[in-house]
Amino acid sequence: MLALSANGVLPRVDYAIFADTGWEPRAVYAHLDRLEREVAAPAGIPILRVSSGNIRNDALNPERRFASMPLYIRNPDGKEGMTRRQCTGEYKIKPIKKKVRELLGFPYPQRIPKDVFVEQWVGISTDEFHRAKDADVRYMRNRHPLIDLGWSRSDCLRYLTSLGLSETPKSSCLGCPFHGNAQWRRIRDTSPDEWRDVVEFDDAIRKGNARANAGGNKLLGEAFLHRSRMPLSQAPIDHVTAAERAALQDELPDAQDAELGVVDGCSPWTCRGELLAQQDDFGLAS
Q1: CA angle, residues 146, 22, 143, in degrees to nearest 5
Q2: CA triplet 39, 43, 44: central angle to 5 degrees?
Q3: Is residue 17 within 8 Å of 57, Cβ to Cβ?
Q4: Residue pair 206/222 in contact by the 8 Å Cβ criterion
Q5: C-beta of residue 234 within 8 angstroms of C-beta of residue 140
């Protein structure tokens, strides 16, 4: 959407907002820098980077309030579960809403008049039209330009390729529990430093987040980043599922990630954790 706006296919937006959890892969930050330098700046579109903190550091800091990640839990009786997913709201949506209020001139807790709002673009394509929703606050009105254009994910990929942006990485926390095996393998096989980072984090959160433990709300079972509920260093990430094999045979755009109905990535307004999805982690407002 940013490139479409910068190139005049869509109207020029006033701002692009990137919600930074503080724990994105290096490739995402490098790509963001390139977008800012080669796409946004020449078009006069400011990219605003907002943050509520570093999600990795917060999870391990007993003095820091932490919005929980959706960790996989194995209880002492053998039953399995997951912790609540609060991270999208805290580290993605909250800082974007805060910045939008500032741009409108009504920072919290000021009341925003009914006739004051931004038009916010959400990058949902036609593949997922059913996920297009209205905003949950009056001062933000969602629009879905890719659906308006009739563009599918494949159309988006072709357009990015035509601009030399075919290597656009997926935005998500480095240690997101919603990663599929293909993403875990990609981290392990292409970025040893980042792999050590996520393995260390996985070991560190075995008993849950530090603030909860310090407050006496200890986890009864054990927490894991991988859905197998095994330590990440031992998890079966080399296993290729039937869904992934079928996707590879069909040469689908996300063949490497088509595992158990999950495509990696995180976006403020449509977290990809539970359903197939792919959209850029940009909120665009005009």
Answers
A1: 20
A2: 115
A3: no
A4: yes
A5: no
d(CA 145, CA 233): 41
State residue 150 phi and psi, 5-degree precision. 75, 25
pTM of the entire predicted model: 0.86
Instruction: Identify whether the C-beta of residue 73 lies closer than 8 Å to the C-beta of residue 223.
Output: yes
Cα(230)–Cα(78) distance, integer angstroms:
13
The Cα–Cα gap between 270 and 277 comes to: 8
- One-letter amino acid at 215 equals G
| pLDDT computed for residue 268 by the predictor | 80
Report the candidate in 188, 155, 182 with the shortest Cα–Cα distance to residue 170: 182
User: How do residues 34-70 score in pLDDT, each as one tens digit?
Assistant: 999 999 999 999 999 999 999 999 999 998 877 889 9
Please, which residues bridge with residue 223 across strands? 73
pLDDT tens per residue, range 120-138: 999 999 998 998 999 999 9
Q: Give the length of the chain.
A: 286
Domain coordinates in residue numbering, the chain: 2-285
Check: CB of residue 183 under 8 Å from CB of residue 231: no
Residue 49, φ and ψ in degrees, nearest 5: -100, 125
- DSSP bridge partners of 283: 17
